[in-house]
Amino acid sequence: AGLAVLVSLPNTAECVKVGMAAMPLVVLYPTAKRWTGHPQLVLGLTFNWGCFVGWTAATGVIDPLPCLPMYAAGVGWTLLYDTLYAHQDKADDREVGVKSTALTWGDTKAPLYASASAFGLGMVAQGVVCDVASPYYGFLALATSHLLWQVRTADLDDPENLGERFKSNQTVGALVTAGCLAGVFF
User: Fold this and answer.
1) What is the pTM of this model?
2) What b/e readout covers 135-157, taking b as 16+ CB neighbours within 10 angstroms?
3) Which residue pairs, CB below 8 angstroms and at least 24 apart, start in 156-160?
4) Rounded CA gap, 52 and 114, in Å?
């Protein structure tokens, strides 16, 4: 299905090249829990590669100036939400011998706050580069605040609490979408 989407995009040849460049990450990710204490970072690097494909589809080229901040923001967000999710599985992960950022970072929240900050700063930088209108930044402030709330209120030993925080990323996505639309159309 992914290949069908890729070949239906504008600038198909360029999109295929950019998409194929992600293949090492795509191949590595399924095994990441076996060889790194940061598989959520590998997921973030893999999952968010789509920003390069999307930019290429829209413009025909990869422009690092807007793409890299957007990529960093996406990686930060993924790292945060998937680490909170991983805390729900840490007992099982220990038992079967797989790794996660939840196990690597333990009970410290500093890396989670750093991930939320990477999201906020990356999205602001991307907005500045793309010269989006001011409503974008208001929505980003709300989205970043929501991520910071997730970290502040997360009980890293309470699966129900963590599940609620994980699901609340729908709110973050809605705020980012609204911000992008408002930043372009208002």
Assistant:
1) 0.93
2) bbbebbebbbebbbebbeebebe
3) 156/87, 156/102, 156/107, 156/109, 157/87, 159/87, 159/88
4) 23
